[in-house]
Specification:
5 helices; about 300 residues; mainly beta; binds magnesium ion; metal-binding; binds calcium ion; Fumarylacetoacetase; Fumarylacetoacetate hydrolase, domain 2; 5-stranded mixed β-sheet; binds ligand LGMQ2O6W
Length: about 300
């Protein structure tokens, strides 16, 4: 199988409030969990397009540096905190000219459709490297996409209100109609040697705070041009319930509360684990599906 498009650039947002609160609490404590800018703009980092792969591609456990204790040098080795991130991604249709931002109310015309996306993340590499410029090697070793793009037209029957935004965003992010989509999402893990996979979490696209159109408008407000085939990840989609969190970092609270699954436990991913995302919208007598977004962890190469 091949990716359905050539990806020029890949940007990953951070648009679920539940995810932002949980990660911030884990990394910085409850007092400083959500940064002051979060409610004013859809935060993102620039990802790596070269390592975006199609569902079914193995993911090699990354090696890297981790935070040292005291004055010792940073430890180095295979990540011990390898995680999935349950995301969706918008694919840009028509782009915009350099210097000409996309109006938030016209942004939907620039989105071809959406896919399932796993932004694999090495939490130990990430935690040591990401201040002050954001994620780098902790996320650039692989990102998996589902095999086809579902157009926004096909999703229109499943449009729903997005969460109320408080404070009100600035005028360039204030849209006349603020839309989310009711897309059920599920993550399963199948460990090596097991017949069956086990459901790890269930979430929904509708939990996103910042909409796809706000992401697009913000991305271009400085004049940055998007091109056809560019990929815009939503960020991990966590819901409000403990069973709807979108990554193991949150589900196990950074490994402190291992998950009890069907005959096995997990703090983070182990070699041989196959992680599969599925998503669907249930219509009247029909279903819109996204295919699967799947990848197996293989051991680090020395
Ligand atoms: O709040 C923080 O300091 C860190 C947040 C994260 O690490 C979340 C994350 O991995 C970003 C992403 O969704 O890719
Ligand atoms: Ca991400
Ligand atoms: Mg990634």
């Amino acid at each position: 199988m091949l990716l359905p498009m050539e990806i020029g650039d890949y940007t990953d947002f951070f648009s679920s409030m539940h995810h932002a609160k949980n990660c911030g609490t884990i990394f910085r404590g409850p007092a400083n969990a959500v940064p002051a800018n979060w409610f004013h703009l859809p935060i993102a980092y620039h990802g790596r397009a070269s390592s975006v792969v199609i569902s079914g591609t193995d993911i090699v456990r990354p090696r890297g540096q981790f935070a040292p204790s005291g004055n010792s040098p940073p430890p180095f080795g295979p990540s011990q905190k390898l995680d999935f991130e349950l995301e969706m991604a918008a694919v840009v249709g028509p782009g915009n000219e350099l210097g000409k931002p996309i109006d938030v109310n016209e942004a939907a015309d620039h989105i071809f459709g959406v896919m399932l996306m796993n932004d694999w993340s090495a939490r130990d590499i990430q935690a040591w490297e990401y201040v002050p410029l954001g994620p780098f090697l902790g996320k650039s070793f692989g990102t998996t996409l589902s095999p086809w793009i579902v157009t926004l037209d096909a999703l229109e029957p499943f449009a729903c209100d997005s969460p109320k935004q408080d404070p009100q965003p600035l005028p360039y992010l204030a849209e006349k109609i603020s839309k989310n989509y009711d897309i059920s999402l599920e993550v399963q893990i199948k460990p090596a040697g097991k017949e069956d996979s086990c459901v790890v979490t269930r979430s929904n696209f509708k939990y996103l705070y910042w909409t796809l159109t706000q992401q697009l408008a913000h991305h271009t407000i400085n004049g940055c041009n998007l091109r056809s085939g560019d990929l815009l990840g939503t960020g991990t989609i966590s819901g409000p319930e403990p069973e709807s969190l979108g990554c193991l970092l949150e589900l196990t609270w950074n490994g402190q509360k291992p998950l009890s699954l069907d005959g096995f436990t997990r703090k983070f991913l182990e070699d041989g684990d196959e992680v599969t995302f599925t998503g669907f919208c249930k219509g009247n007598g029909y279903t819109v599906g996204f295919g699967t977004c799947s990848g197996k962890i293989v051991p680090s190469t020395p």
